[in-house]
Amino acid sequence: MNTADVGVDAKQKAQVKILEQPASKALRFRYECEGRSAGSLPGANSTTENKTYPTIQVLGYRGKAVVVVSCVTKDFPYKPHPHSLVGKEGCKKGVCTLEINNDNMICTFSNLGVQCVKKKGIEEALKLREEIRVDPFHTGFAHKNQPQSIDLNAVRLCFQVFLEGQKGKFSLALKPVVSEAIYDKKAMCELTICKLSDCTSPVNGGKEIILLCDKVTKDDIQVVFYHEEEGHLIWEGTGEFSASDVHKQVAITFRTPRYRVTDVEEPISVYVQLRRPSDGACSESRRFEYLPMDS
């Protein structure tokens, strides 16, 4: 399809595909007041020898198009995120706008950085996004009055492509696509178990234990117990706790899970580790013992 053929069915035939996802944990979100570059977001497959960057392609269409890239929330429904995209090319008022007009209809974003806002700046940032009418999924901006509902440590990139329609106006909007989640590198610390108040539990579980750790996010952490034999996982359970049981991000009070069987006569050696559900990161494992109920 070329520009001359663009009609009402263009949106059905053309689509946007992400060829290179952004790296999930390679970039630190920068505040504007830090007075330094926000850096360039690399691609998921980027290496020192072969640098890559987020890349999209418009399929089923050849001609002029405009892509608008903005930050949306990590979780569905994808709402406008207050963080801004900054860079040398096409970035203005928190979004990046570039024209695509080449043979393969591929666009690479080699200079995109994420500039973050603090909680007190959320409302103003989203008001600006509302003014420029960048709301890819038409979810509205009511969340600007609920700053606690917005995860400031994670965003997704949303790519909105508009095809050239009548009179040279880019009025034909394709279905927007979103990237994998991008996490603020400074917030995604390595997981470490510093100390356990006890390293044993009866096999029926329910024992209260305090775990000291490096900084964690209270609603994105699990205490996982598991038992392996000859490299095969034969049991896994998670400690029971709520977000309110995470103290100042460095201590977790939890109750041990019930082991897979309770009629044991000897201690069972298992492992315990911290796990972050959002990206699957795990701490180093520590040994833990389940004891017979009558011991």
Description:
The protein is mainly beta and 295 residues long. It folds into two domains: 3-183, Sandwich (Immunoglobulin-like); 193-291, Immunoglobulin-like (Sandwich), CATH 2.60.40.10. 5% of the residues lie in helices and 37% in strands. The chain has two helices and 23 strands. The strands form five sheets. Strands 4, 6, 7, 10, 11, 12 and 13 form a seven-stranded antiparallel beta sheet that branches. Strands 15, 17, 18, 21, 22 and 23 form a six-stranded mixed beta sheet that branches. Strand 17 and strand 18 form a beta hairpin. One of its GO terms (biological process) is canonical NF-kappaB signal transduction. InterPro entries: Ig-like_fold, Ig_E-set, IPT_dom, IPT_NFkappaB, NFkB/Dor, p53-like_TF_DNA-bd_sf, RHD_CS, RHD_dimer.
Strand portion = 35-45%
Average pLDDT figure: 92
* CATH class placement of the largest domain: Mainly Beta
Shape: elongated
Q: What order do the helices and strands follow?
A: HEEEEEEEEEHEEEEEEEEEEEEEE
| Rg value | 24 Å
Q: Characterize the main sheet.
A: 7 strands, antiparallel
Compute the separation of the termini in Å: 76 Å
Q: Treating each run of at least 4 consecutive H or I residues as one helix, how many helices?
A: 2
What's the total number of strands? Answer: 23
- Domain module tally: 2
Any guess at the CATH architecture of the largest domain?
Answer: Sandwich
**Under CATH, the topology of the largest domain is which?**
Immunoglobulin-like
Helix content: under 10%
Low confidence ranges:
none
List the keywords.
single chain; 295 residues; mainly beta; Immunoglobulin-like; 7-stranded antiparallel sheet; 6-stranded mixed sheet; 2 helices; 23 strands
